Amino acid sequence: MDRDEENYYGKHGEPRKFDPKFRGPIHNRHCTDVICCVIFIVVILGYIALGVVAWVHGDPRKVVYPTDSYGQFCGQRDTLNENKTILFYFNILKCASPVVLINLQCPTTQLCVSKCPDRFATYIDVQASYRYRPDQWNYFRQFCKPGFNNPRKSVAQVLRDEDCPSMIVPSRPFLKRCFPDFSTKNGVLTVANQTTFKDGRGKTRNVTDLREAANGINNVLDARSVGMKIFEDYAISWYWILIGLFIAMMLSLLFLVLLRFTAGVLFWIFIFGVIGIIGYGIWHCYWEYDHLKGIPGSDLTVYDIGFQTDFKVYLQLRQTWLAFMIILCGVEVIIVLMLIFLRNRIRIAIALLKEGSRAIGYIMSTLFYPIITFLLIAICISYWAVTAVFLATSGEPVYKVMANQTLCKYANLTCDPETFNTTNVTKLCPGAQCTFAFYGGESLYHKYIFIFQLANAFVFLWLVNFAIALGQCTLAGAFASYYWAYRKPADIPLWPLFSSFGRAIRYHTGSLAFGALILAIVQLIRVILEYLDHKLKGTQNSFTRFLLCCLKCCFWCLEKFLKFINRNAYIMIAIYGKNFCTSAKEAFFLLMRNVVRVAVLDKVTDFLLFLGKILVAGGVGVLAFFFFTQRIPVFAQEVPVLNYYWVPLLTVIIGSYLVAHGFFSVYAMCVDTLFLCFCEDLERNDGSTAKPYFMSASLHRILGKKKLSPKKA
């Protein structure tokens, strides 16, 4: 027998006398799951080391700045490209789509420029007129390779060596890259109001040759325009959004307070409403059944008419309405019988909901603990995202041979730009160049970047689950202090939330990390299965798709089960201070011994909290709708002028739902904790003077057992 059980029983198993000084969660604790705690700390230190290594090798500029064909960043300070912030493509016709452009895989020379071209021009025309119109040459050569200023060089050699682009077209910058300035005039695709252009190789082409790129680009540009309008709406309505979220917070608090008085009323109104609706359905089915009597064809059976795509055909049959009526009668009978046989358990569930509202009223600080969990998760997400970006940008510049000739055997092979001109590649493949392709590497570090990304994701999941576990254990300890206080609220310890947080960190970091580890492993497997499913989505192998679907379903169910077990294990840890496995086992068997109560309480709680979320989000949403559409005369002059009124409206509705979810998650944890304490109270105590119940008087009256021992003030 361990130290914790001695609080209830003596060393030899004899019942101990009731201790009126006992105030809930065991204070005489010891560290649990120490090995897992040590492993967790080592993993955190390793995670920090991984971040440091990634920060040393990574360079986020590779994501922020576009890179030219020489591996240099556009717009980088203290370089020749400092004032050249935009990437220009020599021949955009070689680029299949905007995705190719953004991924820097377009097989054409790319240069950093200070601005995009604003006119049509070809190298042939500029070279022919440079003697008497030098201004055109000076404008055109800013889009040539740096240092090139030889208009006398033959056109064939210039295009072969890609010293200059064969043409330029009016463009505008997007994503720091020059894209053709597409527009539509009278339903016709144009570039600078022109439908044709010279390609610089002696041909006149239609701008529809760029349609594949134009469609994607125009959609993205339209999205950018919408994005700017949405940003403007947020900029002028943010304080009204905050007011809406504040109203949602106050409504959530009000709903939790009112649950103490209205939980039973709301539940029974809903139940009798369902019974009434089903009753009306039975009457309507009987009316239809009786109304169709004597109508030709109504006495046919479903088997007689066979399968019909028009469902209305079945509604003309008396058999259909008879089947509906029988089904609804069966559902009605089941609901009534459940209410009759489970009425006492439903009363207990409602009493626990009321008790939860009372407990939160005594420990109001618990309502704001989700802010701490949110901050911890935000830190984890930020660290994971930054580390992932640095890992993704850890590669060195990789250069490849880019040849105009399709039969060049050196095409797409890696090369060294410093020694490329001394090789025989340029002789065998005239016009071939050694240009920047992507970032990568051949070192041991670069070979295992994918493994590091997996490790980054796994530790991230572990830390997030640990932050959630810490919050659940902390809240459970605080609410257990309320339940196990013999005289409420006099015996509730001072600062119960802070004390519970200290106990969880000091003694049970290992146990919380153990539970979080199990959940993180399952979640990582689910992520891998989703990745495989995405990669194999186009496969024709039906068995593979079926197997993946089954695995995804199984691991989803496993994750839900583990979350349920972990949640109750953390409650037992907060109360008795045992290790994770023992707490999980005791919580599981305790719940199984009260499985009907668990099911009833779970559904009643879920319904009332869901109703609360809908009421809060819906109420604030309706108020926001009337406000932003200027339908409230008192505030009509205060409404900001918006591009899309639905932007702040949706933000308020979604934000209100999340605010309500944050408050109600505390309430759900409170009810779950009180329920486990209630079950423990029933099993360990009998209501006698020696072992009185700790439950409230209302719960004791519902049980109808022995009279509560008088609680001395």
TrEMBL record:
Main function: Choline/H+ antiporter.
GO cellular component assignments: plasma membrane
Family of this protein: Belongs to the CTL (choline transporter-like) family.
Subcellular localization: Cell membrane
Keywords: Antiport, Cell membrane, Glycoprotein, Membrane, Transmembrane, Transmembrane helix, Transport
A matching Pfam family: Choline_transpo
Reaction catalysed by this enzyme: choline(out) + n H(+)(in) = choline(in) + n H(+)(out)
Organism: Chloropsis hardwickii
Membrane topology note: Multi-pass membrane protein
Taxonomic lineage of the native organism: Eukaryota, Metazoa, Chordata, Craniata, Vertebrata
InterPro entries, per database record: Choline_transptr-like
Protein name stated in the entry: Choline transporter-like protein
UniProt key word Transmembrane: yes
PANTHER family the record matches: CHOLINE TRANSPORTER-LIKE (SLC FAMILY 44), CHOLINE TRANSPORTER-LIKE PROTEIN 5
Molecular-function GO terms, alphabetical: antiporter activity
Transmembrane segments: 31-56, 238-258, 265-283, 321-342, 362-386, 459-486, 507-529, 607-629, 641-669
